[in-house]
Amino acid sequence: MASSQQDVLAPEPVPPARIVSKNEKLPLLTKVPSIISQCTILNDFTDEAFTAIVRNVERAIEDNTLPDRIAQGSSGSYFAKDVNKEIVGVFKPRDEEPYGASNPKWTKWLQKHCCPCTFGRGCLVPNLGYLSEAGASIVDERLSLGIVPTTKVVYLASDSFHYSTFEKASTSARQLASEKLPSRMRCHVKTGLPMKEGSFQLFVKGYRDAEHWLRQFDSEPLDSNLAHDFQLLFEKLVCLDYIIRNTDRGNDNWLIRYERARSSSIDDPEDVQNNTTTTTSELDAAADEEATDFCVVSHGTIRVAAIDNGLAFPFKHPDSWRAFPYHWAWLPQAKKPFSKETIDLVLPQISSHTFVENLVEDLQTLFKMDSSYTPILFQQQMSVMRGQMLNLEKAFRDRMSPWQLVHLASCTVDRDSAATGDAKIHMRTPFFSFC
Questions:
Q1: Cβ proximity of 137 and 313 under 8 Å
Q2: Would you tell me which of 133, 165, 178, 325 could form a disulfide with 199, CB atoms 3.0–4.6 Å apart?
Q3: Do residues 274 and 344 make contact, with C-beta atoms less than 8 angstroms apart?
């Protein structure tokens, strides 16, 4: 009986989740307390297409196709590649943000330590840029704007990421020690670089920064149909930036994809080959009738992508040195009143108390992922967002333009006043209003 009780009470050994080769580095989470550190499935989302892309990136890293660090910007960000070595996403680790401990940009480190008064934004919570990126994607999805590439929080590890000397040394030591242990004990030793938590945004192809196309549109105006489409897309960008109070929206960090309209003769062999909708009999009939003036017309298209949303969701309106204005407010598109299409799309949602509070709950679920989450700061962030929605609702009802919208008095709406819509006007203004 004693031996049988011992058999029942004796803990079973934890089997390894995966058998690895002798020299393979298997990244494990050693710094994310909210995730079980054993080999669990981390990057698993309800969006199957997004999950498949992240899995592809993980396999590419295992095959030594490592993400490339992006030279621009004030933090560490990386182009993530798939197994075909094509860029499929942009990964921004939390600890490599401007205030992060592993920020690889030495110029920003120097600025932070030598000129702290010129560094950062006092209205933002430090090191939450990765959540801001994912939060902007949630707002875009809930409002059906369709201008933010899908962005979620993922966990990745790669030799190309910036790790401290201690992290690299301890990883090498654990790897070396595990190779000397018996095989049944290796599963209990955490080997490989620690995973990094950060935002992963799908890469959009064929786009260029808005500054390039806006200059070209000045000399080569869009036709009336494309100009109308672009105006609607621009107004969606305005709605997104204003609601999340984006403090870093210049014309270099939102993108435009523009394909010109073109027409070609049906007699062109290349066009005939590409025109899969035209049958051989139709071509013969056209040739018999000598209809040489018949053309295949390809209408132009225009798309907008709002990237770089990591400096949004402030806990207060800018009120110290800089105002962090929206640079799109000086564009000619901002002088036109909001269109009926945009008002019909956005107004019913932001004027609904239920919709706004459901959005707040979704954002709270996201922001709770960070270990530094505090309910007070989060509610302050949401008070700013509610105030922005209140102003946007007023601009819609009064048929204002984006230019008039940004000149409304800043206000906040706390959680207790959300149902009644009582707002507090923010009286303090920044010293500089143009930067």
A1: no
A2: 133
A3: no
